[in-house]
Design goal:
single chain, about 650 residues, mainly beta, Maltoporin, Chain A, 22-stranded antiparallel beta barrel, 4-stranded mixed beta sheet, about 0% helix, about 60% strand
Amino acid sequence: MRARDFLLRPHNRPGDILMVTPGLFVFQHAGGGKANQYFLRGFDIDHGTDLAISVDGVPVNMLSHGHGQGYADLHFVIPEVIERIDLVKGPYDPRHGDLATAGAINLVTRKEVSEGSITLSGGRFDTARALLMASPHIQGTRSLLAAELYRTDGPFTHGEDLRRFNVFASITRPLSPRSDVSATFMSYGGGWFGSGQLPAREVAAGRLDRFGHTELYEGGNSARSSAYVRYKLREPGSELDLLAYALDYRLRLYSNFTLFSVDPVHGDEIEQNDVRTVRGVSATYRRVVTRCGHSFDTSAGFSVRADSIDSGLHNDVARERLTSVVDAHVEQVGIGVWAAEEVTLNRYLRALAGLRANYLGADVTDRLEDLASEGDPTSGVRKGTRLSPKASVIVSPVPDKLDVFLNFGVGFHSNDARGLVRRGEARGTPMSPAYGYEVGVRGRPSRKLDLAAAGFLIDLDSEVVWVGDAGTTEASGATRRYGVEAEARATILPWLFADLDFTATHAAFTGNAGNASAVALAPRLTISGGISAQHRSGLAGRIGAVHIGDRPATEDAFLTAEGFTRLDASLSYRRSRWQLGVTAENLTNTKWREAQFATVSRLPSETSDASCPAGTRGASNDDGSFAGCEDVNFTPGAPINVQVALTAYF
C-alpha cells in the first residue's frame, strides 16, 4: 500500500518524496536550493541533525557542516528515480548509527524503467521542468539514465531565479545467477536567490509584502557529484552486501537572519561555505538458519566514513566579503560495527537483540586561530567511542494479522567537530546519546486494511552544539519527547484508496522548571491524510491534506509558530504513449508559513525597546545596548500553485 501511495502523490520538489512516510513532515527552508526542514516525533530536526538520510545506503547528511550539523540536502535526487522509501523510526535498529535518533530513511533507486519517457512541465511562478528517463538495452545488464532541468522564480517579489540540473546513471550486471554488481553516478548543480525570513511585525504593520524581501543577496549555489559501486551475493539462507562510495560536495550560502542587529552600518549578511570530499565503505552479512524448530536470523556489518572538509563563515555586503569569522579545515572519521540476532521461537513470539559500537575522530585546523584568545583554542584533535544496545520483542496473538511490539534502543548524534576542540564550558561531547522506548501494535484485519499505533518516549542528553550562523558553540539542555502516533491504509474499492497519519507529542527540557521548558519549534500535532485513485481507464489522482498545529517558538512560549492546514490535489490521465497530469498545491490558497523561527532582528528604524510592537520584545547585547526585537521571522508558504505536465513514452 505504501508503494502505491508513493507513486500517486505529487512530487513537485525533491523533498516532497519523503512526505509519503507516516509522521514525517518536510518543508522548504528559506530558498529553493537550501536543504529542507524536517519534523518527526516531536523533533524539529532542522536540516537533519536527528534524522539519518541515505540514498542506496550512501549517506546524505553532512557532518560538521558549515550551516548546521547533519545538513541533508536532497536537491540532487530526481524524484522519479526513487523506487521506494525505507523508514525506521527511533534509535532501535542496529544498522543505523550517527544521527538516527528520531529515525533513519533510505531512498532506494530504480535499476531500470520498462519504457523511456520525456516529461515537460510548467506552471505558476515561471516554473519549468524537463525530464528524460531511459533504460538503454545493453546485453545482460539493467540500466537507467535520467536527466533533469528545472527553474522557478517562486511566488516572491524578488524572484528566486532557482535553476538546477540533475544527472543519474546506473548499470547493474549479473556475475552469476546469485550475484551482481552495480555502479551508479549522480551529479547535481544549482543556484538561487532567497527572499529571506521576514519579520512578522513588519508584515502585520503593512510595511512589508508577505512575499517581499529585506535582503537582495540571500541565496547561494550548491553542487554534489557522487559515484558508488555495490556487490550483492545471495546464497540459500544468506546474503552479502558490499558498498563503496565517493562524493564531492560544495555549498556557498548567503543569509541575513538578524538584518541590522550585529552591524547597524553594513547589515548582518553572512556567507557560509562548505567544500568537502567524502569516502566510505560498508558491508552487511545476513544468515538465516532453523534449528530445533526455531529460526535464527543473524546479521552483522560495519561502515567507515571519512570526510575532508573546508568550512568558512564570513561577514558580507552584497556578497562581497568584509571579514572572516571561521576558516577551518576538518579531517573527520567515523567507524561503526554492529551485530544483531533475531530469534523466532514460534508463530507467536520473536525477539531481537543488537549491539552497535561507534568511533568518531576529528582533527580541526583553525586557520584563524592566531586571532583567537589563548584561553579558547579552536584547533585540536578529539576522539570518542560509544556502545548502543538495542532490543525488541514482537508478540503475534493472531499470526499474520496482529503484532504487538516493544522496542528499546540507545542511539546518538555526533556533534560538530569545531565545537569538540574548544575548552572549558564551550566544549562539546563527541556523541550525544539518545534513549528510546516504544510500545505499539500493528494489525491487518483484512487484506484491505492496514492499521498501526504506537506510544514512544525519547530522552536526548544535554549537548553543546555548534552554531554555524555565528561561528560559536551554545549549550543545550537535556530534552524528553513522548507521544502517540497512529496510521491507517485502506482499500475502499479496487481503484480507490485512503490513508491517514496522526502524531501527537510533548517535548520539554528535563532540567528546566517553570515556564522555560518548552523545546522551541518542536511539533506538537501533525496530521496528514487523503484519498487516492488509480483506475484501469488510465485516470489517477489524489486529494490530500497536511496539518501541523501551533507550537512554541521560544522556550517560555512567549512567541508562537503558527500552525496551518494545506490542501493539495493531483490528477493524471494515461494512454499507451502519453500522459497528461496536473497538480495543485494549496487549493484553498491558505496563508501559511513554511519556515519560522524566533529571531532577534533589527530594522534601521528600530533604536530601542520602545520600537518593538506588542507581541514582540526587546533584546539587549552583552554590553546592555539595544540588539533588536525578538519576533517570529518566517518564510511564507506558496499560494495556490498549479503545474501541468505532459509525458511522452517511447
